[in-house]
Amino acid sequence: MTLAVDDDQTAPSVRPQSLMFSFLGLYVLGRDVAVYSGSVIDVFARLGVSEEAVRSTLARMVKRNLLARHRRGRRVYFGLTPHAAEILADGRRRVWETGAVNRGWDGTWTLVGFSLPDSRRSTRHDLRSRLVWGGFGLLQSGLWIAPGERDVTGILASLELGDHVTVLTARAFKPTEAADLVSKAFDIEQIARRYRAFLAQWDVPRPLSSAPDDLARQLLLHTDWLQLVRQDPHLPTEHLPGDWPAIRAEQVFHTLAHEYYPRARRLADVVLRELAL
Question: What region holds the Transcriptional repressor PaaX-like central Cas2-like domain (predicted)?
Fold first, then answer.
């Protein structure tokens, strides 16, 4: 597991909240239950996360409307809010449906163009951050692109951009080549380095042999992988190098995810205390 950020920012640090999202997506999403805080602390102890850090993370997620508290006697249980369920469902789709390899691109691009006055500099910064997170790359000043048709309503929501933004879908026509758009708008080597870092960690005979059990390895694997696919703009493989590391990385993830699941599930059933909602 990559636990520190290296100098080129290709290996994002793993925070307790990232691990918490993986845990909730695996063991709470889609079930009408809340989990006892003490049992969550027990699970995270396997990952070297302190009780204080777990309680702090749970409290912050309640404040952000991601978790809801449920009290039964002296025990406190935490369940998903609709907002959290929506975020986790999106993560599940990215992991198991969208994936890391885009072999079905239809040649279309989504374009977002905007021009904001200096008085709205903070809004401009927020919009750029949201576009990057949404898989867009900067093609030229004020013009961002992403492969395929993207619904950007969530990206633009709450920014009150009005007529300062234009959203279109388009195709490249000569002399513009799709491969040139990919190389201009996206840092291909940086994306590849992230996948190579994942492979260095997980594509080995005994990944994370120091972890106490497969429940710990499962949570760490899913957290690593979800961070990768959330940062991946899902570029078409036909315009990427033939040895694109995401192809092997996705195979490794699926193999390990299925290998860890049975023992991790049994351990979780023993450790977790739940409240039916």
Answer: 103-182
